[in-house]
Design goal:
The chain is about 10% helix and about 45% strand. The chain contains 3 helices and 15 strands.
Length: about 300
């Protein structure tokens, strides 16, 4: 595979305790920060019975070429790594003009000794930002080493999941279905004024379902990058499998800046293995200064509280 679809081959230490396994599980979920969970419901309804709602989009894209958002990843009270979300383009993918969205996540030196993670996710989205074209997930976590590709065929409304040489049969997907990463940027591109709920089709290439998302706010939230007025998005987890099904009060929360950019400033989840949080530390690219800490920010270099900001 080329540089975009492959990470460096790194050695992984053996896990020596139940604690390391729990940390590893928590970190895997945290790096996706609810994004992959959007597309991992255990059972899908008969697609022929599902009507896909249409939502009004923003007049212009809230994300811009060169946007990079940096996050600190925390499990309980421990800092365990960092993640970067990046938007670029337009670029060309197999002769088609596309936008490229990527998510890179890695454990730090402390967590590497317990459960080493090097994850890279990337999706190419059509130029009008209406559907994903090609999705790749390189997952290196402990002894897990996957190279997942999801190929979309929108003439047939199908998606095909491949993990290395293991290719599954294409599945039917709903029109406008989103991959686990691109769905976050799709939601950023929707108008939220007066909206309290989204129902969005999503797929990981193995199944297709409707993702239900509740919206509330505005409210304030403080992260290392500063204090922001935000809206809160809460994907429904009642039908999610894995550790979510074993957690009585499981939940995923994502805070978007309440402005025309809808920056994901914080993501959090709570399950039986503990609570974990991704908080924005900084943002780079066009308009980044509107989201940068100032000398008088609370928790930054000064002691004065920071005024609420809605960005530019």
């Amino acid at each position: 595979m080329n540089k975009l679809s492959r990470l460096d081959n790194l050695p992984f230490p053996r896990l020596g305790s139940q604690t390391s396994k729990l940390l590893g599980l928590a970190f895997v979920m945290l790096t996706l920060a609810g994004m992959a969970a959007f597309a991992e419901k255990e059972d899908a309804s008969d697609l022929s019975e599902i009507e896909v709602p249409r939502y009004e989009r923003l007049e212009q894209f809230p994300f811009r070429d060169g946007e990079k958002i940096f996050y600190n990843l925390r499990w309980s009270v421990f800092d365990v790594g960092e993640a970067v979300m990046e938007f670029s383009g337009p670029v060309e993918w197999e002769g088609q003009r596309c936008w490229q969205v990527s998510l890179t996540a890695r454990t730090n030196g402390f967590a590497d000794k317990i459960f080493k993670v090097r994850d890279y996710n990337v999706v190419w989205v059509d130029e009008d930002f209406t559907h994903p074209v090609h999705y790749i997930k390189n997952q290196k976590e402990g002894h897990t080493d996957r190279e997942v590709v999801v190929r979309f065929d929108w003439e047939k409304n199908t998606a095909q999941y491949t993990n290395r040489a293991d290719a599954r049969e294409p599945i039917e997907v709903l029109p406008g279905s989103w991959d686990p990463l691109g769905i976050t940027y799709h939601v950023r591109n929707l108008k939220t004024d007066g909206v309290t709920h989204f129902s969005i089709p999503s797929t990981d290439g193995k199944k297709c379902t409707m993702t239900e998302i509740d919206i509330s706010g505005p409210l304030d939230v403080k992260v290392p990058a500063g204090k922001f007025e935000v809206i809160l998005l809460e994907p429904d987890t009642k039908d999610l499998g894995g550790v979510f099904s074993k957690s009585e009060k499981a939940g995923i929360k994502i805070w978007f800046s309440n402005d025309e950019r809808h920056i994901p400033v914080k993501m959090a989840s709570k399950v039986v293995v503990g609570s974990f949080v991704a908080e924005m530390t900084r943002i780079e690219g066009p308009g980044a200064d509107a989201y940068s800490p100032r000398q008088d920010d609370d928790g930054a270099d000064g002691d004065s509280p920071k005024p609420r900001r809605r960005g530019r």
